[in-house]
Amino acid sequence: MVAKSGGPDEPQIQWYPGHMAQAMRKLAERLRVVDAIIEVRDARLPDASANPALDQLAARKPRVVVLGCEDLADPHLTREWLAWLAAHGRTAVAVNGKDQTSVRRIAAALNNVAAGGAMRAMVVGIPNTGKSSIINGLVRRTAARAEDKAGVTRSLQWFRVGPKLELMDTPGILVPKIATPQARWQLALTGALPRERFDAEAVIAEFVAWSRAHAPERAVPDLAAFAELRGFAQRGGGFDVHNAAGAFLKGFGEGKFGRFTFERPAGSA
User: Fold this and answer.
1) Residue 4 pLDDT
2) Is the pTM value of this prediction over 0.70?
3) CA-based radius of gyration for the chain
């Protein structure tokens, strides 16, 4: 399914491949065999990376909202989001999946919402929010495959964390309808989509325009300036914009341009 353009300049983004549709259909079935949910969102997009279907499908199950990739997000806005989620009745923690200390917050929060008994918990979220890194941190070994790309986890996997906790890892799921064109390019930029499903140059152009309006002090270069700076020269003159775009996206994912959060909680200044 390809997103319909809201205007002539909106990046064309294909965000709902078949394996995600199948995963969404199986979500309700899998929820029946777990006691609690660990919903992993992207701290840079706490709203757009949420799955609203969980509010209906799992309304009665204990849930911990994990804002993953917190090391790439604006720390002030992450604190705002944690306070907002708590005010709306959600148990929430922010973590860097590569940091054991922060990952332990999840187990503590899960014990609190599930009364500390033996349980099976499902880990669910959009692609590339750090679900596999979080599982590896909880299991304390490399059990789940983790890569900085969307769609790595394709099948159902169980991992034992301890005598009282088992985790079910599930494929990353994107909702079938993304609310706004802005959320589409932001989800593409933050790695929720494989690169072949969107126009990288158009997504980068949207990000550069956004950064100049909202964070001009970061001085994020446009793609042409980045290509020149990094020496992506082509034989015969000009620059290799295609490979420069790949390096730009990689640099963003590594925090080379700074820490960004694209959304604020409703009602915040």
Assistant:
1) 34
2) yes
3) 19
* 181-253 CATH, one of 1.10.1580.10, 1.25.60.10, 1.20.1260.10, 2.160.10.10: 1.10.1580.10
List 160's β-bridge partners, or say none. Answer: 166
Q: Please, what sign has the CA dihedral across residues 230, 236, 240, 241?
A: positive
Q: For 137-182, give the DSSP string.
A: HHHTSS-S---SSTT---S-EEEEEETTEEEEE------SS-S-HH
Q: Which run of H or E residues covers position 124?
A: strand 119-125
Residue 130 CB burial class (10 angstroms; 0-12, 13-18, ≥19): buried
Tell me which residue of 42, 163, 61 sits closest to 121, measured CA to CA: 61
Reported for 256-260, long-range contacts at CB under 8 A and 24+ positions apart, including other chains, are: 257/211, 257/218, 257/220, 258/215, 258/218, 258/220, 259/71, 259/72, 259/73, 259/74, 259/75, 260/44, 260/72, 260/73, 260/74, 260/211, 260/215
Residues carrying CATH 3.40.50.300, the chain? 18-169
Amino acid at 201: E
- 195, 200, 203, 204: CA torsion to nearest 10: 120
Which structure tokens are listed for 3? 């997103």
CB 37 within 8 A of CB 131: no
Residue type, 134: I
Residue 83 pLDDT > 70, yes or no?
A: yes
Mean pLDDT across the chain: 82
Residue entry with tokens 């003159």: 237
Q: Which DSSP state fits 239?
A: B
* pLDDT of the residue at 164: 82
